[in-house]
Design goal:
Radius of gyration: 23 Å
Order of helices and strands: HHHHHHHHHHHHHHHHHHH
Number of helices: 19
CATH class of the largest domain: Mainly Alpha
Distance between the termini: 25 Å
Strand content: under 5%
Shape: globular
Structural class: mainly alpha
CATH architecture of the largest domain: Up-down Bundle
Largest sheet: none
CATH topology of the largest domain: Growth Hormone, Chain: A
Number of domains: 3
CATH superfamily of the largest domain: MFS general substrate transporter like domains
């Protein structure tokens, strides 16, 4: 029986050396770059069992912690930063600028890691992140801090993509859930510890320490990786010219598109000249990038990323995941504080329970996908997620805090079963020389989906609240959406009826947000069922 990504009739685990194309869907081209001798080489520093030394895994987890802690630790110190530097009207770019830099550099670093190797790209990213952190600690105004946060993001893009790629390089197929679960645990711990650490540093030391604390961590990661990470031996013939024109085009096109999505509906209306101009310019640049990439010998965004059915399906599904994640990560804290009346700590706990169940089911997902395959495991996970997201809209008003917390707990479990099989599966369909580009394309699509989701679902929330304010049967409500946040922070200043109406408006807006997230989950489900092959075309791997 041909082995795809699941077991044979005996039920024995799939050996990393026996995977072949099977089941539905086309096999990977036999003459592709992924079948070259260097494409499946294992790092020379692995143990006889095929596992990397513990110091290498620890260094990768440390590098991922730099990225995972960054946003959560900064968010808690925003009041102190604004109080010291000013710039309240633009402080959101502390996060938007960082996210934009990470997103647009992911495909560039992915291709560079396939061309130059993982280690130099990873060391460069950590060094750039360290420089950005040092500069941020000594920023003299908000504009400088935003610029230095963008420098951090330029390094963070190399960290995020390359570490995920190395997770696929260092472990054979049947062992990959081990490292992926550890990476998920890093994100889970950071989601809980980051806000607490940021609050402690801002309150009892100074907000600048939230950046200075990165220096010893980044320095230790640099030392550990440079000393212990061993690159696989590769054929010198695989290196081609670096597509710098394509890299610049991807950076410019992605930057304009994300800038338009971040600022649209916030700094200016969606149908205004700035929004339409930015979207038109990004469209023109996209056409230029396609033309440049078709002529490049080693394109940054190669066409095979979208021509191969498995990779295209995973990219689209992960884009839908990024979109639906906006609901629990962005709007759940607002719901918990404004509707449930919880404080910041309680609201954070309601959201963070999702990060507790996610790594658990991610670690256990290998027992599922070894039996039924990568695609079907992900189908079960996203199907459950769609049902759980829709269940939020059925909560009574006002809900008790344990009810949305339970939904977040179940949602994390479902998404752990959805995401990890797709990442492990798609990395297993390509060889070493294509894994960086493939992994970067998956992460890039998720980041773009998140940006699109923030813009789209934010517009839905604003429209719902605006409609409720217009139809309000009582006086005393804010006249503008910009004043809603202030009114929610001080509900005692409003008449009781007006405060209740405003809370109901926010509850209705978040309900609509979760309906939108449900639609995104259903879209991901349909993509997997209609586009992804039932059996991923897993390539043979070599174990030492």
């Amino acid at each position: 029986m041909p082995a795809g990504d699941s077991n044979g009739p005996s039920g024995s685990p799939l050996s990393a050396g026996t995977g072949t194309a099977g089941g539905a869907g086309p096999a990977a081209p036999a003459a592709s770059a992924s079948s070259t001798p260097d494409s499946t080489a294992r790092p020379a520093g692995t143990t006889p069992a095929g596992r990397p030394p513990g110091t290498v895994v620890a260094s990768l987890m440390l590098g991922m912690a730099l990225v995972a802690l960054d946003s959560t630790i900064v968010a808690t110190a925003v009041p102190q930063i604004v109080g010291d530097l000013g710039g309240f009207s633009v402080f959101s770019w502390l996060f938007s600028g960082y996210l934009l830099a990470v997103t647009v550099t992911l495909p560039v670093y992915g291709k560079l890691s396939d061309t130059l190797g993982r280690k130099p790209v990873l060391l460069f990213g950590i060094g750039l992140f360290l420089v950005g952190s040092l500069l941020s600690a000594f920023a003299w105004n908000m504009a400088a801090l935003i610029a230095f946060r963008i420098v951090q993001g330029l390094g963070g893009g190399a960290l995020q993509g390359t570490i995920q790629t190395l997770a696929g390089d260092l472990y054979p197929l049947k062992e990959r859930p081990r490292i992926q679960a550890r990476m998920s645990t890093v994100w889970a711990v950071s989601a809980v510890a980051g806000p607490a650490l940021g609050g402690l540093l801002a309150s009892y030391a100074h907000w600048r320490w939230i950046f200075l604390i990165n220096l010893p961590l980044a320095g230790l990661a640099l030392w550990m990786i440079s000393r212990h990470l061993v690159e696989p031996v590769r054929s010198p013939g695989r290196k081609g010219p670096i597509d710098w024109a394509g890299a610049l085009g991807v950076f410019a096109c992605g930057g304009l598109l994300l800038f338009a999505l971040v600022q649209g509906g916030v700094a200016w209306p969606w149908l205004s000249a700035p929004s339409l101009g930015l979207l038109a310019a990004s469209t023109v640049l996209a056409a230029v990038v396609v033309r440049v990439e078709r002529r490049a010998e080693e394109p940054i965004l190669p066409g095979w990323v979208w021509r191969r059915r498995t990779i295209a399906a995973v990219n689209l599904a992960m884009g839908a995941l990024g979109l639906l994640m906006v609901a629990p990560m962005v709007f759940m804290p607002t719901y918990a504080q404004s509707v449930l009346g919880l404080g910041p700590v309680g609201a954070g706990l309601v959201m963070s329970v999702m990060t507790l169940s996610w790594p658990i089911t991610a670690a256990l997902s290998q027992h599922v996908y070894r039996r039924i395959g990568f695609r079907d495991s992900a189908v079960i996970g996203i199907g459950l997620a769609a049902a759980i997201l829709y269940a939020f809209t059925l909560l009574p008003y006002p809900a008790r805090p344990w009810q949305p917390a339970l939904i977040m707990l179940l949602l994390g479990g479902a998404l752990g079963l959805f995401q990890l099989p797709l990442i492990v599966g798609v990395q297993s369909t390509v060889g070493w020389a294509e894994r960086g580009t493939t992994t970067a394309s998956v992460l890039f699509c998720r980041q773009v989906g998140q940006s699109v989701g923030a813009a789209l679902l934010g517009a839905v929330a604003n429209a719902t609240i605006a409609a409720r304010l217009v139809d309000a049967p009582m006086p005393g409500l804010p006249d503008h959406l910009d004043d809603v946040a202030k009114a929610l922070d001080h509900p005692g200043l409003l008449p009781r009826a007006a405060a209740d109406h405003l809370r109901e408006a926010v509850a209705a807006a978040v309900e609509h947000i979760f309906l939108g997230a449900t639609a995104a989950a259903v879209a991901a489900l349909l993509i997997l069922l209609l586009v992804a092959p039932r059996r991923f075309p897993v390539l043979p791997e070599q174990e030492h």
